[in-house]
């Protein structure tokens, strides 16, 4: 699954276009490598996402094409959150 779609389906980012913009700005890494919006993710990958002055590192636990709100939080596990100040 593409990273922009994963971020939208998992509800980490509300809109796919916003997820695409963030990825294309180089603010997302997959397993330590800068990701583009078309980069594929799979179960076990580690994502690092920069949101302004905060960074969230998470591990993908499940890939689903569509989800309900309650199921979305089971798609990933947050490893750590850091302030970049």
Automatic annotation (TrEMBL):
This protein's name: RQC P-site tRNA stabilizing factor
Organism of this sequence: Weissella kandleri
Pfam family, one: S4
Role summary: Key component of the ribosome quality control system (RQC), a ribosome-associated complex that mediates the extraction of incompletely synthesized nascent chains from stalled ribosomes and their subsequent degradation. RqcH recruits Ala-charged tRNA, and with RqcP directs the elongation of stalled nascent chains on 50S ribosomal subunits, leading to non-templated C-terminal alanine extensions (Ala tail). The Ala tail promotes nascent chain degradation. RqcP is associated with the translocation-like movement of the peptidyl-tRNA from the A-site into the P-site.
Entry's Gene Ontology BP terms: rescue of stalled ribosome
GO molecular function, one term: rRNA binding
Gene name for this UniProt entry: rqcP
Family (UniProt): Belongs to the RqcP family.
Domain of life: Bacteria
Domain RNA-binding S4: 1-61
Subunit organization: Associates with stalled 50S ribosomal subunits. Binds to RqcH, 23S rRNA and the P-site tRNA. Does not require RqcH for association with 50S subunits.
InterPro entries on file: RqcP (IPR025490), S4_RNA-bd (IPR002942), S4_RNA-bd_sf (IPR036986)
Transmembrane segments: none
Family matches, as CDD domains: S4
């Amino acid at each position: 699954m593409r990273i922009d779609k994963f971020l939208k389906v998992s509800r980490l980012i509300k809109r796919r276009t916003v997820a695409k913009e963030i990825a294309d700005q180089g603010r997302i890494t997959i397993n330590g490598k800068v990701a583009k919006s078309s980069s594929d993710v799979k179960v076990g990958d580690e994502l690092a996402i920069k949101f302004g002055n905060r960074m969230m590192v998470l591990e993908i636990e499940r890939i689903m094409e569509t989800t309900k709100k309650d199921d979305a939080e089971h798609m990933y596990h947050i490893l750590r959150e850091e302030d970049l100040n």
